[in-house]
Amino acid sequence: MNHAFDAYVTAALFDRAGRAAFALGDGTVRFEDGALVEAHNGAALSAAVHPSGEGLVTGGDDGRLVWARVGGAEELAKLQGRWIESVAASPESKLIAFAAARELHVRDAADPAFARTFTHEKSVTDIAFDPKGRRLAAATYGGVALWYARIEAQKPTFLKWAGSHVAVIWSPDGKFLMSSMQDNQLHGWRVADEKNMRMGGYPAKVKSLAFLSKGQLMATSGSQGVVVWPFAGSTGPMGKAAAEVGYDESATATRVAGMPGGSWVAWGLDDGRVKACDLVGQRVLNLKAEKGAPITALSMTPDGKRVAWGDEDGNAGVSDVG
Fold first, then answer.
1. What are phi and psi of 189, to 5 degrees?
2. Which residues pair with 2 in a beta bridge?
């Protein structure tokens, strides 16, 4: 199933019902069944699945946070003159977080009156909830700030590492926090004791990270194949080597997606192709063999059976795995 939306694909996500939804640079959210929602007066810059599992929460360059679902759009927040460049949502805590410049904002999907704002010294580039939805990680210059999402007056824990941090993800057990850096490397911390993990050797910037296999593995972009790090045990990837799957010297992986409870991983390339692999059998599938614009968005259903993708030129699709 392929679509030509004629607008940059910001996000390709599956809702709770397993339906693909695409947030686009023209401000719309499109669903795979053809439904269209006018979400923003401008571009949709970020997106996450709503905590209810229905539709997407999107942030735009119009300063609006919007819940887009079939049937219409609902404005959840507005920051006049600001760009909302990162959004996260937690089905466990029902909280929604979004970042604009130096501020991190939190809303409660079940309580319209709830609001929290946390301010940083530098701009926030990415945010992520921990597995329980109680704590937020905010990537910024010089490290990652950890906030308790519901507490109003607090001083964050700051995990320091020099440089610009551009993407952040928690391990499914909440023990590790991983960040990609501006300078072609990863950095991570074991949260309990803030022990550092420096993971380099990438030929390109790591723009995408995903855990799979019940948190035993982490896949990343940034190389000619998908890079897979081992996370089993109390020390995670410390002292261990990564493996690279599906190496192709002609292209670089730009996005990755994983099956949370299984061994399937998918990746999109800067030449428009999309691949998937069962890491147990090492069999690589070509989900999208034709070349085109770089893949900018990618996700996989929890059962590992479907992959949604989108590219810079507005082409998008949903592919069956296996």
1. -135, 140
2. 317
Report the C-alpha gap between 300 and 288 in whole angstroms.
Answer: 14
Encode pLDDT of 190-217 as tens digits: 999 999 998 988 999 999 999 999 999 9
How many other C-beta atoms lie within 10 A of the C-beta of residue 129? 24
Q: Which two tokens stand for residue 64?
A: 């609006």
State the Rg of the chain over Cα.
18
| Distance, CA of 244 to CA of 10 (rounded, Å) | 26
Distances (CA, A) of 66 to 36, 151, 318: 14, 24, 24
Tokens of 102: 């130096």
Could you write out the three-class secondary structure of the chain?
CEEECCCCEEEEEECCCCCEEEEECCCEEEECCCCEEECCCCCEEEEEECCCCCCEEEEECCCEEEEEECCEEEEEEECCCCCCCEEEECCCCCEEEEEECCEEEEEECCEEEEEEEEECCCCCCEEEECCCCCEEEEEEEEEEEEEECCCCCCCCEEEEEEEEEEEEEECCCCCEEEEEECCCCEEEEECCCCEEEEECCCCCCCCCEEEEHHHCEEEECCCCCEEEEECCCCCCCCCCCCEEECCCCCCCEEEEEECCCCCEEEEEECCCCEEEEECCCCEEEEEECCCCCCEEEEEECCCCCEEEEEECCCEEEEEECC
| pLDDT tens for each residue of 84-125 | 999 999 999 999 999 999 999 999 999 999 999 999 999 999
Instruction: Determine phi and psi for 233, rounding to 5 degrees.
Output: 90, 175
Q: What are the structure tokens assigned to 150, written together? A: 């519901």
Query: 239: which DSSP letter?
Result: T
Say if pTM beats, i.e. exceeds, 0.85: yes
CB 206, CB 184: distance < 8 Å: yes
Report the half-sphere exposure of 279 (CA within 13 A, side-chain side). 28
**Sign of the torsion angle spanned by Cα atoms 303, 209, 32, 307:** negative
Please name the residue ranges forming H helices in 156-293. none
- One-letter amino acid at 269 equals L
